[in-house]
Amino acid sequence: MFFPPLPRSVNSGRSAVCSFRLADIKSVFSGNYKVLNRDTLQWSTRVQEKVANPGECGLHNASDNALRFVKENFLADDSVRPVGRSATVVSAEHSYTHLRVQRVQGAGSRSYTVLFLLT
Predict the structure, then answer these.
(1) pTM of the entire structure?
(2) Domain count along the chain
């Protein structure tokens, strides 16, 4: 699981923490990407075969063609949705800046995820 603290939003005035599955993040980055039509300024899903994967690290040995593809196709076609489809924690009073996560063993051998939130 991945728990990024999301700072206070200008639109909502609230800070949040969401939880994401790493497999969901990898799936989006290995999926399709969008391309901008410069004539219409509209984004569309790229239907051509991928020359490179923009979500992949380590492009230091990539060809010029692969680097051009990554430069032009940086917007993923899908989005990563949080576990449960909503934020894990939301606060209008606090702006979370740091987070620590710990898995603990509870009674009856149940595991719990504990979030330590810093403002």
Answers:
(1) 0.71
(2) 1
